[in-house]
Amino acid sequence: MRHNKKFNHLGRTASHRHAMLANMACSLIKHKRITTTVAKAKALRKYVEPLITKSKEDTTHSRRVVFSYLQDKYAVTELFKEISVKIGDRPGGYTRIIKTGHRLGDAAEMCFIELVDFDENMAKAAVKKTTRTRRSKKSSAAVETKAAEETSAVEASEEVSAAPAQEEAPKAE
Prior knowledge:
Blueprint (H helix, E strand, L loop, with lengths): L13 H18 L1 E5 H18 L4 H11 L2 H14 L8 E8 L6 E7 L4 H9 L7 H37 L1
Antiparallel strand pairs: 1-3, 2-3
Helix pairs in contact: 1-2, 1-4, 3-4
């Protein structure tokens, strides 16, 4: 029976598994997003999120603890300097797993795992959301035509001001 045996061994020995997760964690910290299988991503999430929580407190002890897991001083520096500053107020859930389909060779379920606050696409989508009412459709059409007229007038004035400057240059030679 498998009672209380939740850990996914990923088909590897303990030393191989620890080395693989440390390397994947370093890659995630450096690149902010990596592509992998779903099983490895779930194991990596359990491995890296406590390290990110530990990085919120920038002490010598916490740096040494994180370094003992990662064994990469550049990744540790990146984690404490850049990532911990950006996720300082977040209470947890630092990573996001998004499934991308199946791998062609062996049909393994693939995904990418990324740090939540470092995804520009999701941040832009959150900023662009604005509320619109039905009444604003007519006024927005009028605003768009007025803006289009203004931009065409500005472009025309730029063309006129650029034309004499180009004609004067050959005369000076």
